[in-house]
Design a protein that fits this description.
The chain is an alpha+beta fold. About 30% of the residues lie in helices and about 25% in strands.
């Protein structure tokens, strides 16, 4: 596995080159000023604009618009089409994917956003899940861990200095979310049976085989670019050269 950090990819003259065995991770800010947001909103479909208007808070509505517009811009580059012409479909358990009209591109993607940040993973036909969480201390982490974490995961958190436990909780949570998203299992999957306590940053760890699942899922913690966030990646196989790109940061 090779990790490469690239420069800003949000320029008009950028052309993607994603080959088999590669995985691109895009970092973006979705708190943008009015002019940038207006440009991105023009790329959205009628259904996406209607969904944006259903948000009660303007901040959340604006972040949704920017996130969708950025996703369309990036995927449009890979597909070689106008971002407004990118079509999506909802796969099993609500996982978003490209519509069948783009099947010849054999492109898979997964995205996650938290507060003002967004991560988008793009692969050439390899199922992937990525998750980003804002680390905060206003939740009952112990109660949630007892319900959704394995015994090994709970013990791994308990063994840490108290000042590190909240971040460790969210780090494990991102691993579980990334796994569910990659496998397409949905929230019905018994995540408390899944031990993801031994992930490493920027280094693949094989995930223990689960009932009904092949034994080829691998995961890693990734640097979200800010200390108040946690992020993780899960994908099929481990021989991926990873490149990080910044869209607008």
């Amino acid at each position: 596995m090779k990790t490469v950090h690239q420069g800003n990819g949000g320029t008009n003259d950028w052309h993607p080159d994603i080959l088999p065995g590669t995985l691109h991770i895009w970092h973006a800010c979705i708190d943008l000023h009015h002019g940038e947001r207006q440009k991105l909103e023009k790329l959205l479909s009628t259904a996406e604009r209607a969904k944006a208007n259903r948000y009660h808070f303007e901040k959340h509505r604006n972040r949704f618009i920017c996130g969708r517009g950025i996703t369309r811009t990036i995927l449009g580059k890979y597909l070689g089409i106008d971002p407004a012409q990118v079509n999506f479909q909802i796969l099993a358990h609500g996982k978003p994917g490209l519509a069948s009209i783009h099947a010849s591109a054999q492109l898979c993607f997964n995205l996650s956003h938290a507060n003002e940040r967004m991560l988008l993973a793009v692969t050439p036909g390899v199922e992937t899940g990525i998750d980003l969480e804002y680390v905060r201390d206003d939740i009952n982490a112990g109660f949630i861990a007892e319900r959704f974490f394995s015994k090994a995961e709970i013990q791994s958190i308990a063994g840490l200095d108290p000042s590190r436990r909240t971040h460790a909780f969210f780090q494990i949570w991102t691993r579980k979310e990334a796994y569910i998203k990659a496998t397409g299992k949905g929230l019905s999957f018994p995540v408390q049976q899944l031990d993801l306590s031994n992930f490493k940053q920027d280094s693949w760890t094989q995930i223990p085989q689960q009932a009904g699942q092949p034994a080829h899922w691998y995961g890693m913690d990734i640097d979200p670019g800010a200390g108040t966030f946690a992020a993780a990646l899960v994908t099929s196989g481990k021989d991926h050269a990873i490149a990080h790109f910044s869209f607008n940061e």
